[in-house]
User: Fold these one by one.
Assistant:
Number 1:
Amino acid sequence: MHCPPASLARRRGAHCDHLAQKERLKGVKNFGRTVKAQATSTKRGQITAEQQLRWHTAVQEALDCQQQVNKPEAEHLTLQDCFCGNLDKTCLVANADGGVQVIACASKKKTEKNTDDSRASIASLRIGLASGAQRPFPFLAKGVQTDRKSIANLLKERCPKGSQVVMSASACVPDDASLKLVPMFAKGIRQMEVIKDHPDWWMTLTCDGFSSHTIDAANVVFSEHKIQIVKEEGDTSQANQSCDQEVAKRDKSFMRMNLAFVRRRLGSKKIDQWMLVALAIDAQLKVTEPD
């Protein structure tokens, strides 16, 4: 297919903007001005200087406490990046809504994106250490029990220790699912490289304000594995959580690539949640590879 020169494309775009501005495109909504198919909103008003001071003070107190109990101190200072990290939840859905820009026909009451009717979704709890290590891989899926042996084999053969699929009433992290997930998750963390060689050392993990990350019973389990949790205030993740700023973006980038490839191969067939787990495992393994 022949593509027009960049200068010609710019002139066409400018002409389209001119027609929309002069309201000459009578057959489309808003006279041709593009709008988001589905707007999103996030609360960012909680990020203030006072909040940032509280957050950094809380993290520093946790790190100071960790340094006092992890001996010898000189060795801990050398390896402290392996004992400090961030955990967060990443979601993957078969058909994401996205912020699609459209020029809608005025004669149509509703404009939709043409996709299959799959509504499958999963959640992945992610941990990233300051050293760059990212594992294990726990997933949450909807249902009562795991009915795919291939997924169990995939978790065993390709994923780090502590990786699992926990079933829940919805593919999110309710309190009951969190309690099922945490014991194996915490055990997998303690089996990571360097950490397993220092079983008496404490480590610090920060997390967002989602309540199921920090219920009392889960904190007891984390404490038994010498892991202290520092919970942030609500609506501040994009500023406080390194996972949101880097790892989650790379996760989703690889997941979108995997989904696009599978959609081309499957055509109109549905993508179920087990396929999403397999795609997420592949994506997260790519993220964990060193640059």
Note: The chain has one domain: 45-288.
Number 2:
Amino acid sequence: MRPALRLYSIRQKLTAMNMLVSGAALLLACTAFASYELRTFRESIVRNISIQAQIAGANSASALVFNDPEAARVTLSALSAAPYILSAGIYTEQGDQFATWSRTPQTNEVPVRQEPISSAETHVFTSDRLILVRVVQFQNKKLGIVRIESDLAEIKDRLFGFAGIVLAVLLMSLLAAFAFSSIFQKTTARPIAQLAETARVVSRDKAYDVRAPLTTNAAEIVVLIRAFNQMLEQIELRDTALKAAREELEIRVIKRTAQLEAVNRELESFTYSVAHDLRAPLRHIQGFIDALMEDAAPNLTPQAHTYLSRIIESTRRMDQLISDLLALAQVGRQELNLKITDLTPLVQNVVRDLALEAGDRHIDWRIGKLPVVPCDPGLMKLVFQNLLANSMKYTRPRDPAIIEVGQTPSNGEQVIFVRDNGVGFNMKYAHKLFGVFERLHRREDFEGTGVGLATVQRIIHKHGGKIWAEAEVDRGATFYIVIGTTLEPAPAGTIPALANSESA
């Protein structure tokens, strides 16, 4: 019922409510009046029949005394003047039938024997008749009883008459209620409907310059409409200001983006130029050191040899730093060359190269089935070279070292992981992990320039992916990678040859 009511407009609901209330009130009033009239009319019929029984009993007393049934029948026949009396009978004190009369003589309307009554008069209503029994007395002596049956057709006629009147009044009242509802709608429902239509237009079209029409009726509705229009005015002003601010912000963002792009290009160009130009004097230093070691080594003191060794180590470290900076700058300038690549053989090639550098170390390489992804195979090879080289470096104190590469589903994505059982790191400093020149371990313990992981992060972000790490001190570290959109793993023997040729 309630969901169906929601489909109707407020005008229809108000009309239905007015007519329902008016009809229900009128129906209750008519029902109460009819019930009262019916009860009163029944009491009136009982009184009339009681009077008839009293007269018939008084006129039949002498017939009972002198045992004259014929005289009693004549007395009872006088009841035919009352159109609703059907039959009557006089019975002796012992309950024997003395005299009867019936409006339809061919039927036996009167019982042969009537049980004695305990009071002077009693009556009972059946479905269609009134039966009244009264004691016949003479000089305070009970002679017999008189029994009269009356038809209730008069009550039914009265009820039908009431029903017709109630129906006519109800119909006229509903028509009047409908007419008053129409007048009421003009003053109340129509402004509310117009307000609702305005709200619908504003919500649908975002047209905040629309206003609800004012009305001169119903002070509360006028207040509501004015408040609604004022709210629209405020929203319109804010919307206009917001659009202007958004346009200004977009212009500023475009300008700032252009500036940042120019600065980034200049920085990358500067980094590349500086790193490239530093290599020439560095090679000169290395060349002169080699010449000095070759020509004057026997004449040098042990302390001089120590100094030269430190110079050689510093130049080697600077050369590695320059190489890493060049790689980082190249990643920023290089365009992606996306190809469908199976990462399993790509990682296997990287492991094969790194295993040659491991020497006699015992490393347990565990390479699982990796996904097929659209990526730049050259840059992705650089990612795994850095991550696996890190794992080799930080598992140096372990024997055996365990380095694992695999994939696992997480939140609907295929996540690639690189896990080791190395020295790990404190997660309190994880936010520094991918910063340039940031290191979480001492240079004396583990070599490095602090550029490798920054390069890895830049490559992953360039692919639209993400990278993060989890670790515990002395319990290893795990790096997680999501590379954009992953595909299903390729069947064995189909992609590896292509991937090998791409990543070589």
Note: Residues 107-115, 486-504 have pLDDT under 50 and may be disordered.
